[in-house]
Amino acid sequence: MKELLEEMIHVPGVSGFEDEIREFIRSKVEAMGLKTEEDNIGNLICTIGDTGPKVVLIAHMDELGLIVSKLENDGSIRIRKIGGIDDRTLVGRVVEIKTEKGTVNGVIGLKPPHLMTESDDKKKAVSWEDVRVDVGTRSRKETEKLGIRILDPMVFKKDVSYIGRDLICARGIDNRAGCAILLDAIDILRKRKLPVKLVFVWSVQEEIGLKGAKVVGFSMRPDYVFAVDTMTTTDGPMQGDAYERILLGSGPALRMLDHAAIASPRLRKMIEAVAKEKKIPLQYGTGGGATDGAVMQDFGALMMPLGIPMRYTHSPTECASLKDLQNLSRLIVAISERIAGKKTR
């Protein structure tokens, strides 16, 4: 899980531009001897089993990022944000621009204090409209020669670090962690031959409105949906106390309530019974945001978001516990076995 997650974090996949991460996941799935399909919006789908209830296990493979919105005459680049990026995290960052000619590095600079005047507000965050990406050129023509065009996506350069015993920290754990968990679980479940139709989905455009999941819900009409995504914790420094604490390393979190959905109480009971039987720790969350499960619930499915506890969501230093990832994979396998046995009440 550790090596897989590290590898996936470094594969780009800005919302709407998921080609590279989709092909990476496809290669892993097909190396298991399984077939994949891709729908019109770009979701990657793998189905195992053809009888019994239809169970969708979904994790979004897109990530936050930027696109080139304008080339300036001085060679610098204006941006637009893709997804919920906090402007405070933009400046002082290295970005990788994905062009048809390859990757071009750039930097988002910050006006140094040496050049600031009395009229400058040093405490004010620079808004995305005022951000410029410097790719080392002095004219628009030079920038264009690098292969950079309007609408080219860019991602923040990522470094993977570890703190404590097993906490992995990087930009992009949301939701490369969920993608890794599904790969781990499908590798186990493909050998079980359960009497249930398990549909694994790596979805697109979650960060800009759950777009890929809407297509899956409409086309498949599943009986059960389990959205595997990160769940913001409050156990880090200065994170506030409005919500119940969710602790890294203390188990997967049932995301019972967020800004877009209320999870199924029936599934809660079933999952609690499974987790107790398998000795898998559980936590409960009622935070904000939304998951792919919210829009799929609209088509009549029993739905539960399975949360990966994570600190500092949508920041350059997202943190998660590898132990939680392993336990969530175990939980998915156990849930699938329980549904196959029709012991859902």
Give a written overview of the molecule.
By secondary structure, the chain is α+β, with helices and mostly antiparallel strands. It has 2 domains: 2-63 and 172-340, Aminopeptidase (3-Layer(aba) Sandwich); 65-156, Peptidase M42, domain 2 (Elongation Factor Tu (Ef-tu), domain 3). The protein has helices at 2-9, 19-30, 140-145, 173-189, 211-220, 265-278, 292-297, 322-340; strands at residues 37-38, 44-48, 54-60, 65-71, 77-82, 93-99, 102-108, 133-134, 153-156, 161-163, 167-170, 197-203, 224-232, 253-255, 283-285, 302-311, 318-321. Strands 1, 2, 3, 10, 11, 12, 13, 14, 15, 16 and 17 form an 11-stranded mixed beta sheet that branches. Strand 1 and strand 2 form a beta hairpin. The radius of gyration is 21 Å and the shape is globular. The two termini are 32 Å apart. 45% of the residues are buried. The mean pLDDT is 94.
What's the count of strands? 17
CATH architecture of the largest domain: 3-Layer(aba) Sandwich
Helices and strands, in order, run as HHEEEEEEEEHEEEHEHEEHEHEEH
- Please summarize the sheet with the most strands: 11 strands, mixed
The helical percent reads 25-40%
The CATH superfamily name of the largest domain is Zn peptidases
CATH topology of the largest domain: Aminopeptidase
Uncertain segments of ≥5 residues (pLDDT<50)? Answer: none
Classify the beta-strand content into a percent band.
25-35%
The count of helical stretches stands at 8
Provide the domain count.
2
Classified by CATH, the class of the largest domain is: Alpha Beta
Assembly type: single chain
The overall pLDDT average reads: 94
* Structural category: alpha+beta
Q: Estimate the global geometry from the Cα principal axes.
A: globular
Tell me the Rg in angstroms: 21 Å
Give the CA-CA distance, first to last residue. Answer: 32 Å
